[in-house]
Specification:
There is one protein chain. By secondary structure, the chain is α/β, with parallel strands linked by helices. It has two domains: 229 residues, Rossmann fold (3-Layer(aba) Sandwich), CATH 3.40.50; 70 residues, no CATH class. 31% of the residues lie in helices and 17% in strands. It has ten helices and 13 strands. α2 packs across α3. The longest helix is centred in the middle third of the chain and has 15 residues. It starts with a strand and ends with a helix.
Amino acid sequence: MLGITSLRCAFQRTTGPLPLNAHRFMAAVSTTATKSVSTVPLAYDLHVPAKPVSDEKTSPIIVMHGLFGSKKNNRTISKVLARDLGRYVYTVDLRNHGDSPHDPRHDYPSMAADVAEFIRQHDLKEPTLLGHSMGAKTAMALALQEPDLVANLVAVDNAPVDARLASDFARYIQAMKEIEQAGVTRQADADKILEPYEKNVTIRQFLLGNLYRPQPPEGDGKTQRFRVPLNILGKALDHMGDFPFKNPDETRYAKPSLFIRGTRSKYVPDEVLPVIGQFFPMFEVVDIDAGHWVISENPEAFRQAVIRFLEPKD
């Protein structure tokens, strides 16, 4: 079982209403508003299954990364899911990350609106939302905001509750600003600056994966900078642990939902399971032997959990 334990839950409320090729694209430019939120076009990769069970618009999977991540972090697992399920997989860059545009507003309502607009622009039918950490809360927010737009949900190591964001992220912002101020040209020099802030080399490599060399006129082609807007994300940290929906009596997502948590992570403790059940009454929980970075730490257990949830039922 590769360290997987599963729990099926159905909480009832008593009140309230009831080898693959990746093709890179940029969604058409849009400044439309979804539910009064101005949206940005999301950059994405499309992973094409060798033996598709449907076309690219029907039942695709949309994969969303966490804070400081990008679509490239989910490239491998997306190819695997496309292969095993025969479904097209879109991996997106959320706003202020990767190749997607920067915007002063960075919160879950705006990120959810971006993904909703992405679904509409591409005329996607009954997509699965799969998100890790920040991407998980974005997926949950969209499912609750527009349940008819989403067929099912996979939330990886996050919960629909307000929680204090780990202090590590503020330190990372400080270190990344120091790297930019130093005008480094080699990643090894950036790593030396980052090391006192983070001892884990895997996390350092993850953060430094955001470095690039801007070409003229934005840069000199040698000095490295971060793709993510550090000032915008630094200001957003105070509410990145929040969840925009507070009252499960006012809204819920009554379709299948899978919550995957790492057994060595503190993001989804047992005491929040009743809250998950109130917002997502048709949810399952799968525990995987991993920390917060579930997908990269235990990819095979993660793959098995997602396949079991999404494969057609007899």
